[in-house]
């Protein structure tokens, strides 16, 4: 999909949803939609609402990120990338009379290039809506079943673990993606991340505001090389088992809602050494293949957020929320030994712009010693001086300006301290200086992550 195709897609979607946009422009999220009487113009024109009433809830997100690296990194430059994610949630009780059942289906398509690999060189994604496979992807096909008066909830099928566990409330409000999903659980824990789906499922027990979840997800690295339609198990390398306890409140039952989650994982798949080859010497200096270890890795995480301030205690539209998270593996033969995230989302910073938001996020990574040694040895191989730091930070400040309730312009500024070179080791020529990146996201979001 080209950049022009993406623009055309956006315009078609805007036309498709024009009844929703027209009726919503003068409303805040707290306003109630008017009840349409039978045969009214509202009921006839807003087919999306009528589909939802009949059991089909549509979702569509399109995001385009233009970013420029203006200082530091491997080199300066600019790139454009993005993608579209669409799907539907089917209420099987309304459609077929199967009580408590839902089906979820999602497809995705991406285009463009990554500034992380092309210019800055880091492993982490500076453009959250970019993926290396520029093709159609099946991103989800699952069955969800509620049992025991909604205390138990079972979900299984073609799914990614990061939509079900260690999921941040606010992480997908940002252009970069260190918290959408957690970088560490995705790379070290074996959590399959969107749009790459494997076989898996989870069981959740909820009582009041508390819940407990346990899941099992196939680990299949070959999944990244197809469209998600190869459902065989012959390339599976193991299983990832996460558990999570949580306490979650919402504006409906808490004037200052909060989220707290704590969890951990077991990864049975074999994994590779970040520095040494099969002969036990540096792969960067002497080539070969990375040494492989038998599976059996563990890790833990905790995350939380809370609305801490509202200019009007009687309104929920404008508010300030703080969030933070912590993730760590329990062994040292990894890329990372720690990831910590913190920041804020300030919805309605100006009374005249109640659904805009000002957002800040800071992420700290601590690399394993062997991973940093591998980077240093890459430079030694080409006779370049310098040493990499074990500590790396990514900072982002953005402002989400709502042109329409579903259409946002998001100027953003990012700063990377001690950039790594793991996103493009082939072109690495020196220890990268701190990188400054700025750009603009255009986002159409109907029911996707961060649309609330």
What is the overall number of helices?
9
Proportion of residues in helical segments? 10-25%
Morphology: globular
SSE series: HHHHEEHEHEEHEEEEEHEEEEEHEEE
Based on helices, strands and strand pairing, what is the structural class?
mainly beta
Q: Which spans have pLDDT < 50 for at least 5 consecutive residues?
A: 1-45
Question: What's the total number of strands?
Answer: 18
What is the rounded Rg?
Answer: 23 Å
Query: CA-to-CA gap between the ends?
Result: 27 Å
Query: The biggest beta sheet, please?
Result: 16 strands, antiparallel, barrel
* Mean pLDDT figure: 88
Strand content: 35-45%
Instruction: Please list the strands of the largest sheet in the order they lie side by side.
Output: 1-2-3-4-5-6-7-8-9-12-13-14-15-16-17-18
Can you describe what's shown?
It is a single chain. The chain has helices at 3-16, 18-24, 41-45, 47-54, 92-96, 115-120, 183-187, 283-286, 369-381; strands at 56-73, 77-91, 101-112, 136-147, 152-159, 198-207, 210-219, 238-248, 258-267, 271-277, 290-293, 297-309, 319-329, 336-347, 357-367, 391-404, 407-417, 433-446. Strand 4 (136-147) and strand 5 (152-159) form a beta hairpin. It has 452 residues and is mostly beta strands. Helices cover 15% and strands 45% of the residues. The chain is built from nine helices and 18 strands. Residues 1-45 have low confidence and may be disordered. Strands 1-2-3-4-5-6-7-8-9-12-13-14-15-16-17-18 form a 16-stranded antiparallel barrel. Strands 10-11 form a two-stranded antiparallel sheet.
């Amino acid at each position: 999909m080209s950049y022009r195709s993406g623009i055309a897609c956006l315009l078609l979607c805007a036309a498709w949803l024009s009844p929703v946009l027209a009726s919503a422009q003068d409303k805040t999220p707290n306003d109630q939609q008017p009840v349409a009487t039978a045969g009214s113009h509202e009921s006839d024109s807003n087919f999306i609402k009528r589909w939802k009433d009949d059991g089909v809830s549509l979702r569509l997100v399109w995001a385009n990120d233009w970013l420029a690296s203006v200082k530091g990194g491997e080199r300066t430059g600019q790139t454009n990338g993005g993608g579209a994610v669409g799907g539907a949630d089917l209420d099987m009780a309304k459609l077929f009379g199967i009580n408590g059942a839902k089906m979820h289906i999602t497809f995705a398509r991406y285009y463009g290039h990554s500034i992380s690999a092309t210019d800055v060189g880091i492993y982490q994604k500076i453009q959250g809506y970019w993926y290396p496979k520029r093709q159609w992807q099946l991103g989800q096909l699952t069955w969800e079943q509620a049992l025991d008066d909604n205390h138990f909830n079972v979900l299984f099928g073609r799914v990614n673990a990061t939509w079900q566990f260690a999921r941040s409330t606010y992480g997908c409000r940002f252009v970069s993606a260190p918290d959408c999903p957690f970088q560490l659980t995705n790379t070290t824990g074996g959590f399959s991340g969107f749009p790459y789906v494997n076989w898996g499922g989870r069981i959740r027990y909820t009582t009041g505001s508390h819940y407990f979840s346990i899941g099992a997800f196939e680990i299949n690295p070959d999944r990244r090389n197809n469209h998600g339609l190869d459902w065989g198990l012959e390339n599976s390398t193991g299983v990832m088992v996460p558990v999570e306890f949580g306490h979650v409140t919402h504006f409906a039952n808490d004037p200052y809602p909060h989220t707290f989650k704590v969890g951990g994982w077991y990864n049975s798949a074999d994994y590779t050494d970040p520095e040494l080859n099969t002969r036990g010497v540096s792969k960067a200096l002497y080539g070969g293949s990375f040494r492989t270890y038998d599976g059996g890795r563990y890790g833990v995480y905790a995350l939380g957020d809370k609305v801490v301030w509202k200019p009007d205690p009687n309104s929920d539209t404008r508010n300030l929320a703080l969030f933070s998270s912590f993730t760590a593996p329990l062994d040292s033969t990894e890329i990372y030994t720690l990831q910590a995230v913190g920041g804020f989302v300030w919805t309605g910073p100006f009374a005249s712009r109640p659904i805009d938001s000002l957002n800040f996020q800071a992420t700290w990574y601590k690399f394993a010693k062997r991973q940093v040694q591998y980077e240093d040895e890459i430079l030694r191989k080409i006779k370049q001086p310098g040493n990499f730091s074990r500590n790396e930070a990514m900072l982002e400040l953005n402002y989400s300006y709502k042109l329409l309730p579903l259409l946002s312009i998001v100027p953003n500024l990012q700063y990377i301290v001690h950039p790594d070179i793991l996103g493009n080791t082939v072109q690495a020529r020196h220890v990268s200086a701190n990188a400054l990146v700025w750009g603009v996201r255009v986002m159409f979001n109907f029911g996707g992550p961060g649309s609330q």
